[in-house]
Amino acid sequence: MEIKASKGTRDILPPEVEDWQLVEETSRRIFALYGFREIRTPIFESTDLFVKSTGSDTDIVTKEMYTFTDRAGRSVTLRPEGTPGVVRAALEAGLLRRLEAERFYYIGPMFRYERPQKGRYRQFSQIGVELLGSAHPAADAEVMEMALALFSSLGIGDARLQINSVGHAECRATYRVALREALVPHRDRLCPDCQRRLDVNPLRILDCKVPGCAALKEKAPSILDHLCDDCRTHMSRVQEALRALDVPFTINPRLVRGLDYYTRTTFEVASGGLGAQNALCGGGRYDDLVASMGGPPTPAFGFAIGADRLVMLLGAVVEGQRARPACPSPADVYIVHLGQAGFDEAFRAARALRSRGVATLFDPESRDLKKQMSRASACGARYTIIIGDSEIERRAYALKRMSDGIQKDVAAGQWDEITREVTHGGQQRVGA
Question: At which of 266, 293, 318 does a domain end?
Answer without folding.
Answer: 318
